[in-house]
From TrEMBL:
It comes from Mesocricetus auratus (Golden hamster). The keyword Lipid biosynthesis does not apply. The keyword Zinc-finger applies. Signal peptide: none annotated. PROSITE patterns: ZF_C2HC_C3H. This is Zinc finger protein 474 isoform X2.
Amino acid sequence: MIRRPPTVICYICGREYGTKSISIHEPQCLKKWHNENNLLPKELRRPEPKKPEVRAITGKGFYDLDALNEAAWTSAQSQLVPCNVCGRTFLPDRLIVHQRSCKPKATK
């Protein structure tokens, strides 16, 4: 059986990154998030995502990756905004694009 290298979920975008590259990715991702958030209309702007604090350290002195990933995934999902027509959730910049084509369901 092939073992995948351990990955960490970014608390901003929700994507998986290797344990070595997450420290490079997060500052760049946060900068991109600020740029995109500033372009949104005021009513869709979101507060800056906060890095989840996970204090669970195993007996060997390592962070519990499962607990860290669960907290990061929850943080990334909390940034999604529901469509006021269909209820699906999107990142704020994608919601604008979605709303152009979202139609209310026709009643029979």
